[in-house]
Amino acid sequence: MQLLSQKTWPARLEFLYESMDFVSSCARALGFNADRISELELVMEEVLVNIVKYAYRGKEPGEVTISCSEDGGNLVMDVVDSGVPFDLLAASDPDITAGVDERPVGGLGIYLIKKLMDKVKYRREEGRNRLTLVLFKGGKTSPLF
Amino acid sequence: MEIITEKGKECVVVSVKGKIDAVTSPDFEKGLTDLIEKGETILLLNFASLEYISSAGLRSILAIAKTLKVKDGKMLFAGLRGPVKEVFKISGFESLFKIFENTEEALKSL
Q1: Least CA distance to B65: which residue of chain A?
Q2: How far apart are CA B89 and CA A121, in angstroms?
Q3: pLDDT profile of chain B (110 residues), mean per 10
Q4: Whose CA is closest to B60, among B93, B25, B86?
Q5: What's the domain count of chain A?
Q6: Which residues of chain B does A117 touch, with a Cβ-Cβ cutoff of 8 Å?
Q7: Which residue from A minimizes the CA distance to B68?
């Protein structure tokens, strides 16, 4: 696996577009098409907004580091924060057949991450959350397009 | 994001251009809440020029739908395309709301 690029931002909403642009340029450099890049941007928004909203709640605002690596043509992204432990894979999927009254407002972001990425892995290590997102080169048929 | 509101006979048509994301969704939700406070109960959302929606936007839509339901109102959608259409599909919003090809079709249904 080869590290392509790595960058750290304060975990604040004002850096959202910059960090989304960062991952899309990594994906573009590896030759992913516009449709998959658009999905990736959506996933990165969901991941980053979660960190901004919840990771440092009640603590000093911290940072988020994103690294993009290439592994046999696949794009591997690591998103690391030092916030409270949070395994988004442990969240249960929302009932997408429920009606307006029954549906809780929220919970769809994590579901979109799981649906749109080819692989998602979570590790808590050395006081940090490390979320690994993988896009397969020419991978599965995109559910979006 | 840009919101254009047109008052019709039976509903208000809200055309949204650009992106509804974590940054813009509070403005989107406020725009719709203002309309409901002015007494509008049927909102037709024209998403023909909407390029992107994230869960923040879906959250706003669901919150508005809940408010409208209490008032016997409703939300209709028209013109969904590309990623927006598919995000609606993945999230089950396709079965939650009435979705039309374009605003003309939606208006005919009222």
Answers
A1: A100
A2: 25
A3: 94 98 97 97 98 97 97 97 94 96 96
A4: B25
A5: 1
A6: none
A7: A100
Q: What is the reported pLDDT for B74?
A: 96
Residue A133's DSSP bridge partners are A77, A120
The chain B residue lying nearest A142, using CA atoms, is B86
Rounded to a whole number of angstroms, the distance from the CA of A45 to the nearest CA of chain B is: 8
Is residue A142 assigned to a domain?
Answer: no
- Asked if the Cβ–Cβ distance from A105 to B59 is below 8 Å, we say yes
Residues of B in contact with A98 (CB under 8 A): 92
Q: Which positions of chain A have pLDDT values less than 50?
A: 145
Reading the block at residue A56, the tokens are 């440092």
pLDDT of residue A58: 86
Q: Is residue A143 part of a domain?
A: no
* A76 located within any domain: yes
CA distances, A53 to each of A49, A114, A125, B102 (Å) = 6, 19, 21, 36
Contact: B92, A101; criterion CB under 8 Å: no
**Whole-number pLDDT of residue A106:** 83
Chain B residues in contact with A115 (beta carbon < 8 A)? 90
CATH number of domain containing A29: 3.30.565.10
The pTM is what? 0.92
Does residue A144 fall inside a structural domain?
Answer: no
Number of domains within chain B: 1
Cβ burial A54-67 (10 Å sphere, 16+ → b, else e): ebbeeeeeebbbbb
Q: Please report residues of B whose CB lies closer than 8 A to that of A101.
A: 66, 69
Q: Which domain holds residue A8?
A: 2-135
Enclosing domain of residue B53: 2-108
